[in-house]
């Protein structure tokens, strides 16, 4: 990836609905060159998709938290992470090194709904413990 590719990705992260012409103007390339680069970035898997970012509050999801999950030592993290990813309200799953094995990003309508999700997690035989940290304010998200 050269500097133009990085600029293209940065522009599309701001707004994935920009036309190729708008992206080209912002990065200083011709429309055709920019279009070829975007196609290549998609084929190479640098750009993996486009999606709508939503306002969670307007969707009735006022609680956002990160839930660290520790597994029992005889359990593999990969199977547990896959199982956790199927739970309603879990929007991101990360395998980690450190104090916890898996980190979940969870959204819920309220604290009661969040508590029900965590109770399901704690009842799983693979889970040793959980710990939650609640998002007070989102300062920056680009990925």
In words, what does this structure look like?
With 143 residues, the protein is an alpha+beta fold. The protein has two domains: 3-43, Arc Repressor Mutant, subunit A, CATH 1.10.10; 57-134, Lrp/AsnC effector binding domain/regulation of amino acid metabolism (RAM) domain (Alpha-Beta Plaits). 38% of the residues lie in helices and 21% in strands. The chain contains five helices and four strands. It has helices at 3-14, 20-27, 31-43, 77-85, 111-123, and strands at 63-71, 90-95, 102-108, 127-134. It has a four-stranded antiparallel sheet, with helices on one face. Strand 2 (90-95) and strand 3 (102-108) form a beta hairpin. The longest helix has 13 residues, at 31-43. The radius of gyration is 20 Å and the shape is elongated. The mean pLDDT is 95.
- Strand order within the widest sheet? 2-3-1-4
Question: In what range is the share of β-strand residues?
Answer: 15-25%
Morphology: elongated
Mean pLDDT: 95
Q: Which parts are unreliable, with pLDDT below 50 for 5 consecutive residues or more?
A: none
Can you tell me the CATH class of the largest domain?
Alpha Beta
Task: State the fourth-level CATH superfamily of the largest domain.
Answer: Lrp/AsnC effector binding domain/regulation of amino acid metabolism (RAM) domain
Number of helices: 5
- What is the CA–CA distance across the termini? 18 Å
Task: State the helicity in percent bands.
Answer: 25-40%
H/E element order: HHHEHEEHE
In total, the number of domains comes to: 2
Rg measurement, Å: 20 Å
What is the CATH T-level topology of the largest domain? Alpha-Beta Plaits
How many strands in all? 4
Indicate the structural class: alpha+beta
Please give the CATH architecture of the largest domain: 2-Layer Sandwich
Largest beta-sheet details: 4 strands, antiparallel
């Amino acid at each position: 990836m050269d500097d133009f590719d990085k600029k293209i990705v940065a522009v599309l992260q701001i707004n994935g609905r920009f036309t190729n012409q708008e992206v080209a103007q912002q990065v200083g390339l011709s429309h055709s060159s920019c279009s070829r680069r975007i196609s290549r970035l998609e084929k190479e898997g640098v750009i993996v998709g486009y999606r709508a970012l939503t306002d969670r509050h307007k969707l009735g999801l006022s609680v956002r938290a990160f839930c660290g999950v520790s597994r029992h030592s005889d359990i593999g993290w990969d199977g547990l992470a896959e199982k956790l990813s199927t739970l309603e309200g879990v929007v991101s799953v990360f395998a980690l090194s450190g104090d916890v094995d898996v980190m979940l990003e969870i959204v819920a309508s309220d604290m009661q709904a969040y508590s029900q999700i965590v109770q399901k997690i704690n009842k799983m035989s693979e889970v040793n413990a959980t710990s939650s940290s609640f998002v007070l304010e989102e300062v920056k998200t680009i990925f």
